[in-house]
From TrEMBL, chains A, B:
CDD domains: ACT_HSDH-Hom. This is Homoserine dehydrogenase. Its EC number is 1.1.1.3. Keywords: Amino-acid biosynthesis, Methionine biosynthesis, NADP, Oxidoreductase, Sodium, Threonine biosynthesis.
Length: 430, 430
């Protein structure tokens, strides 16, 4: 059964992920060959700094000319683990033009240009796989694309950024503030020197765009994703969440509207019940919760980043793409046939946890409640706490649109008796 | 892109799962056609009792002659949801002989005859898919077979039977005994009138055989799986587990030996730490925890049974098989190239929680500890409790082989001072 001519793999990038891919391709060559039905051979490794010692990567395979590598014409699969938009985008399209299929771990590029890349792959009859782009090692894209292909996904609720989950988990378990928890994450290597992409939700938003696109068979671009970071989450928010049996997570949420006619995608911190399976996702782990018509509630859990886990996802794709190549076929391409409109954030319907600083005098609650009623936002629970002539009101609403809630908050700010809106947080997963 | 000739599907069995498959094939016909690239048509439904009203299944499609249906020659995919060994086995092989691929939800058959069925599929160039056979809607077989195809799986630890998880969860949360919890499970429809297959671990053992085979690329038959039921688990065991920060689950455990040279598969109740992700799997839910070299720790969670969830898995397979058929290829078949030996239970190495009733007098602990030492089983912790002249000793060991532990217990039973061995339970997931 075994074909003897090896499949040739070009590796673009040899950092944390790439070097791990190269290592496993060498150490597990026999297993990979048996699973694919033919040996795979590392045919070239494109890097920026050729001088750096790369254990296990033969020096003669290393090149700084990535373009020449993808143009060689004898490459079966290009593995792109450079990240970023360029030169990755051009290299991938060049690879298709020169007969290679592509495995990528590039969430930013897929979120921005997924449709064009899929079109290029299809035009050349090649595969584009990118399991590693979302939630590292966790099999997620394949299950959504294939296992749930006979089902209707209604909601995807995910912890897809390990750095922010580490910080929020630390705040939750130790009572630390945001800055203190971020400092610890940085010291332990969970946060980068510039943590913006993580803590402001850019990384999660890219993953939300990819997940929403696959889940709803609809093109969802990064620009379509509403994004709020988690830098404003306070120890007081956690205390308030705890009193109500909830915790706080930075979530990527992709939803089909109740009438089925549109979808939304968003990233923001949210309170979820402690009993929700996502609530017990600790440290830098990722997990994605999927709700569908027939399957019900599913969850996929695992390490969302790191060299080895990401390499595991890359190699799973590599095996699949090599198998497709041997049998002369391609796997499922882009599925965007549903082409549902992506609604703006104002249309999202959910519940809200609002903390107000108010004057401690009679009639304040009545005033506040009137404002909610005037905007059609129904109140579920109110908790009032007095302190030194001032008081705080913690209000949890029933389901209301983001637009209605926004109008409510604007009107609340104009009340003389409302000193300030201390926090507004969405309540999900109930 | 859309081919107009529909793919023809024959459905064998129209019970809880089959009727749901038929319903979704009708209500979601357009989605399925878009995802497959061609319409799919229900061409025939084989049932035992043709008179039963089946909503949404046209009467003219119903037949009692399953053999004639699979022999028709124009059937593209046979969906087998009858269960049991015969006639399912003969119908599936007949289907391959007459040109159809097969999607099955039949765990018992796959566990017993998976190798022969895979060989038949391969001989005829057809697909055999069975995601629904293990853990219902949870995508598990596809992730293990495909997503982790570039990784090395070392351990699979799963709650793969919803009935027993419901019973154990009830005992855990309410303090109920086994019989009381079973009665409630029966009343609520979670347990069958004869719960033997569930509570004695037969159902989980079939799934363990299938999972071990796929995870280790090795044939593992039902007979290779060590099986212990959970009918002996007591409220006292839960109390003892709780004192040590653990709970009790019925687990299917598939392991690669530390030297990599052999594998084991087993089903038995086990104590796991409350902090383990499997500990918070409640009610009738299933979850499977996978440990691999590169990906690390992954978990897949969801409903493990029921008509709709199982139908979701069947339809995901149906889409994949139809797509393969359209592109003239087949998906990954059996992968048994590693052909590792399956070791007996005595070779399994784990930790143990042993509860002894002993005489409450000096020197007993020394005697007991000597027996452990003589058998090379090292003790981690001992807890001693006196009650009315008798005492109980709760001992947790370090890692030891099942054979060594068995020898230890046999010797303990011979001690005059040991009145009885109240319980022995393995400790996993630490």
């Amino acid at each position: 059964m075994m074909r003897t001519r090896p499949l040739k793999v070009a590796l673009l990038g040899c950092g944390v992920v790439g070097s791990e891919v190269a290592r496993i391709m060498t150490t597990h060559a026999d297993d990979l060959a048996a699973r694919i039905g033919a040996p795979v051979e590392l045919a070239g490794v494109a890097v920026r700094r050729p001088g750096k010692v790369r254990e296990g990567v033969p020096a003669e395979l290393v090149t700084t000319d990535a373009t020449a590598l993808v143009k060689r014409g004898d490459i079966d699969v290009v593995v792109e683990v450079i990240g970023g938009i360029e030169p990755a985008r051009t290299l991938i399209t060049t690879a298709f033009e020169h007969g290679a299929s592509v495995v990528s771990a590039n969430k930013a590029l897929l979120a921005q240009d997924g449709a064009a890349l899929h079109a290029a792959a299809e035009a050349h009859g090649k595969d584009l796989y990118y399991e590693a782009a979302v939630a590292g090692a966790i099999p997620l894209i394949r299950p959504l694309r294939e296992s749930l292909a006979g089902d209707k996904v209604n909601r995807v609720l995910g912890i897809v950024n390990g750095t922010t989950n580490f910080i929020l988990d630390k705040m939750d378990t130790t009572g630390a503030g945001y800055q203190e928890a971020l400092d610890e994450a940085t010291a332990l290597g969970y946060a980068e020197a510039d943590p913006t992409a993580d803590v402001e939700g850019f990384d999660a938003a890219a993953k939300a765009a990819i997940l929403a696109g696959i889940a709803f068979h609809t093109r969802v671009r990064l620009d379509d994703v509403h994004r709020e970071g988690m830098t404003e989450v306070t120890a007081a928010d956690f205390a308030s969440a705890k009193q109500m049996g909830r915790t706080i997570k930075l979530l990527a949420i992709c939803e089909r509207a109740e009438d089925g006619g549109s979808v939304t995608a968003r990233v923001h911190p949210a309170m979820i019940p402690l009993t929700h399976p996502l609530a017990s996702v600790r440290g830098a782990y990722n997990a994605v919760f999927v709700e569908s018509d027939a399957a019900g509630q599913l969850m996929f859990y695992g390490p969302g980043a790191g060299g080895s886990p990401t390499a595991s996802a890359v190699l799973g794709d590599l095996v699949a793409v090599c198998r497709n190549r041997l049998s002369g076929t391609t796997g499922p391409g882009e599925s965007a046939y549903a082409a549902l409109p992506v609604s703006p954030m104002g249309d999202v319907v959910t519940r809200y946890h609002i903390s107000l600083d108010v004057a401690d005098k009679p009639g304040v609650l009545a005033q506040v409640a009137t404002v909610f009623a005037e905007h059609g936002v129904s109140i579920d629970t109110v908790r009032q706490q007095g302190k030194d002539g001032e008081a705080s009101l913690v209000i949890v609403t029933h389901r209301a649109s983001d637009a209605a809630l926004g109008g409510t908050v604007e009107a609340l700010r104009k009340l003389d008796t409302v000193r300030g809106v201390a926090s507004i947080m969405r309540v999900e997963g109930e």
